[in-house]
Amino acid sequence: MHDNSHRTPDEFNDDINLEDEDEMEEWCRLFECSAAELRAAVKLRGPSARRVRAYLRDRQQTAQ
What we know:
Layout: H1 21-31, H2 35-45, H3 49-63
Helix pairs in contact: 2-3
C-alpha cells in the first residue's frame, strides 16, 4: 500500500486486503478502528473500502 497520509475520502476506492498486516494497520489508522472491527466490517460488507468506511462510520454514530 502506498503512503496514505494524504488520502481523502474520495480516494477510498480500493479493496481492503486482510492478508497484508501493514495494509491492515493503515486501514485501521485511517478508519480509527481495531483490527477485529476491520475484519468484522469486511466480513459483513465485503472488501470495498468505501462500504467498510460507511459501515464503521454508521456504527460509531449509532453507538453515541
